[in-house]
Amino acid sequence: MQSKQSCARILIAAAYVAVAVQAAWAQKITTPEEFFGFRLGSDNKMARWDKMVDYYQLLAKEAPDRMKVVNMGPTTMGNPFLCVIISSPANMAKLEQLREVNEKIVDPRGRSEQEIKSLVSQGKAIVVQSMSLHATEIGGSQMAPELVYDQIARQDEEAKRILDNVVSIVVPSFNPDGQIIVTDWYRKTLDTPAEGTNPPWLYHKYAGHDNNRDAFQTNMVESQYMAKILFTGWKPEAYVDHHHMGSYGARIFLPPYAEPVRPSADPLLWRELSWYGAHMAYKEEEAGESGAINMAQYSGWGHFGFHWITPFHNIAGMLTESASAKLATPLYIHPEQLDGGIRNLPTYNEETVFPDPWKGGWWRLRDIVDRQKISAWAVLDLAARNKETVLWNAYLKGKRQTERGAAGKTKAYVIPANQHDKLTAGLLVNKLLAQGIEIESVTKAFTTSTGMTYGPGSYVVSMAQPKMGLVRYLLGRTFFPDNDWTRNKDGSPIRPYDMSTDTMYEYMGVRVDPVEEPVQATLVKLTKPIPCEGVVANSGTYLLDGRLDESFKAANLLLAKGASVKRVDKNGDGVRAGDFVISKADGAQAAQIAQTTGVDFARAPAVAEGSTHTLRPLRIGLYQRYYGGNIDEGWTRWVLEEFSFPYKSVLDPEIKEGNLNTKFDVIILPDDSSAMMMGDFGNGAGANARGQAGNEGGGGAQPPRGGGMFRIDPSVYPAEFRSGLHAEGVAALKDFVKKGGTVVALGTASLFAIERLGLGITNVTAGKSNKQFWCPGSTLKITVDANNRYGYGMPENAQAVFLQGDPAFDIPPSEYNEHYQVIASYVDRDVLQSGWLVGEEIIAKKPAMVVAQSGSGKVVLIGFRAQHRAQTYGTFKLLFNSLVG
What we know:
Elements: H1 4-26, H2 32-36, H3 49-62, E1 67-74, E2 80-86, H4 89-92, H5 95-106, H6 113-122, E3 125-131, H7 139-153, H8 157-165, E4 166-171, H9 176-189, H10 221-233, E5 238-245, E6 252-254, E7 258-261, H11 267-286, E8 292-294, E9 299-300, H12 306-309, E10 316-323, E11 331-333, E12 361-363, H13 365-385, H14 387-407, E13 412-415, H15 422-434, E14 440-442, E15 446-447, E16 453-454, E17 459-462, H16 468-475, H17 504-508, E18 513-515, E19 523-525, E20 542-544, H18 549-560, E21 564-568, E22 580-583, H19 587-597, E23 602-603, E24 612-614, E25 620-623, H20 631-642, E26 648-650, H21 652-656, E27 666-669, H22 674-678, H23 726-738, E28 742-746, H24 749-756, E29 762-763, E30 778-784, E31 797-802, E32 809-810, E33 820-826, E34 832-834, H25 840-843, E35 847-854, E36 857-862, H26 876-880
Parallel strand pairs: 3-4, 3-5, 5-10, 6-8, 7-9, 25-26, 25-27, 27-28, 28-36
Antiparallel strand pairs: 1-2, 2-4, 6-10, 11-12, 13-17, 13-18, 14-17, 14-19, 15-16, 20-22, 20-23, 21-22, 21-24, 29-32, 30-31, 30-33, 30-34, 33-35, 35-36
């Protein structure tokens, strides 16, 4: 029993703590308006990221007991990427303990129900919210300072309950580089005809609007930071990504998603989305904010971006989409301009999920800020009021998904040691680890009941783990639903939201085997990424495996250092067509490159005379345009840099000047429409023509996002930012090819090359209705001529990523048949590997990649997405082979 004296000391200490807490709460917290000098969301005003960083750091100093700012590291362009953590003083004092408790709840394997109940009582709901991933969708980043301020400054019961029961994690800008780009452009164009337009270039250095498509491959550093927060670090119960949409429909979209749903998530997950979404909408109505809609427009089966992949991490991954103004410039909308025509809102009228339609008038950035802040606060409020339920459901999802995985037909996926490209297979393993997927390595060979043997160096991914749904879609063949939810009444297909599949192993060209029995083997759980360091033989002449993507990087680095690099042209004793033979290479340089790339520098066998050709560094030009930039151009830039291909960006004026052969050996035309490349806006080219503000893949079902611009008006841009090849550019490209240059056309840019360069090739998908031919973002089976130098290093059987609108070719018979080389073709039947394909007979056996001779030069047509979003490692070599001499 405690003495009266000790009890008195405890009471006195408690009183001191209470006084200290009250003093901390009483401290002056600087309001956003005081700091920035205007109310955020005000007309014609935007806070810039550097100033926002200063504000968050100030708040962390003013309320250090309730708020912590973590700089995750530099962005692509060197700006700070912030993660703001907010909770009560008691919670902040034990953040790591709370994170560990949550880790045990979401992955309850090996723990009793009683232990979980104890952990739930100790734990706090973890909620992550991110802002303005698409940088022209500025409402989130402008709203975040107010949201953070309210969480640390409000002292009402609701705010205190949130602090006590929730660890709130705010990523105040998912794209700081873009935030700066857009803010600077807006300020520069204020009071000019270009006010309120999107910048002329991409608002992320490489990914542009596609940065949220990078969630499962995590190529961008910003994606890697968010993956650490969501997938391997905090593993929250709820995640909200705040976006904008087009201007002429509902004012804000809130969860849940519309049909179709992507199966294999826990049913509780989909119920949670309805639960959170109803509360968000309720709070919008309570505040008198009209125009909120639930369960419409955005389907439950979307691309594997952050808010659509998180449900398969057992996280309630959600999306808000606010109607856009013209950045910070108000937009007036007439009532008759408001329209439906989307999933679950066929006409702009009152519905149960849309009970209070907005009536039109001026639409301002402040309207967006208000609605987004209400929705963001509502998520925190619901999680705080129902903390125990939220955490218990997190346990149930992890437990039940593990049980489903164990009971399913496929028990595991095995990544065999024997791979066409072993380094890309290793990269796949490391990308899966970045998702928080459990992987085990095989240390002793085992054989399945079907007779398949897997040796050391193989990896096993069990389905008996909480993220089984994610494993299933990244490593399992996938078919998009073809049913009443995906067809219109006339039978025409409804475009999926972006891709109809995101099967990582197919994209990367890695062999993965489904196993229908529990794996009985000696396995060791991976606890860190597998290293990829090459071995250098004791030899003056080295052989690099031409099947490895990374061998191209090694060859480029060696060429830059003055080494002699040759390419093998014939299969022989110990060599394959496409292998690289290296001589005159310094041993220390070879060791460094082997460590950097993972490529083995093997001893080169004797190679028959005349069976190689010498490589030389080619002068590569990459075509770039304005009007929001071209996303495919950005991804192509990243791929070229990642694999050390030297290149120069070339814009219209330089092409129009002509004499291109004096500067370039190869010019790459990234995927783009002819209208955008030509600057021909009379053909209806708009901001969603695979450029900055579009590339949604949503076509008719989703209005384009961005600053409210639906079509490009070149006249509003300053003259230096108007682009288009026009007749002079086409003539210069023709002359370049005629005199020996090579043009590489990717995706739909092939159609520009066919038409404008007069190649005598036709597109077999042209003129076909969607009911006749339909392939929205799928992997298709192709055969490759690996003995042709443009196919070197490829397997004979591969998969290519095809998007609706991409061409497949036909070469009409003529006296010039020898001028064409078919490098890859679609297989003759069962063309679809994963996704959705209607009308396979139209492209079956048709060329997918053709090299056409024109004058003394060549035009390389790659009709599919060989370097799609820097994700399709399995077909990178088809591009790379076009870029080496």
